[in-house]
Amino acid sequence: MNNVLDDQLEKLKTALQLTDTKHDDLLKLYLEDATDFLKLRLSVTGVIPTEMLAIVRGAAVKKFNRFKNEGMASYSQDGESITFASSDFDEWDDEINQWRKDHTGMNKGMWVNPYEIRQNGRSN
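That's the Phage head-tail connector protein sequence above. Prediction below.
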């Protein structure tokens, strides 16, 4: 296991207040899945950006808390009702969208020389 995953696993276990290794394999799977899904949302390949790791952990916490209730949109028993979000990443949409804007060039300007005239792809 790599150092980033080790570090994220320890932070995730702290967030969930787990001190044993009983659920480590499941937690690693949730971290890896959350990383893969977030990469798709961010349109990145390779390593997930460091500033997005908190979102990965948050999504893994949500997934773990739904353990054995996966696939359900809502659950009720004895007057108690629980409803799950349709996406583990919904609460971080603003952060994800801002990261995408900051890293896709959408918020970046470009200087163009108005005196440069191009004809047939060549400068004069």
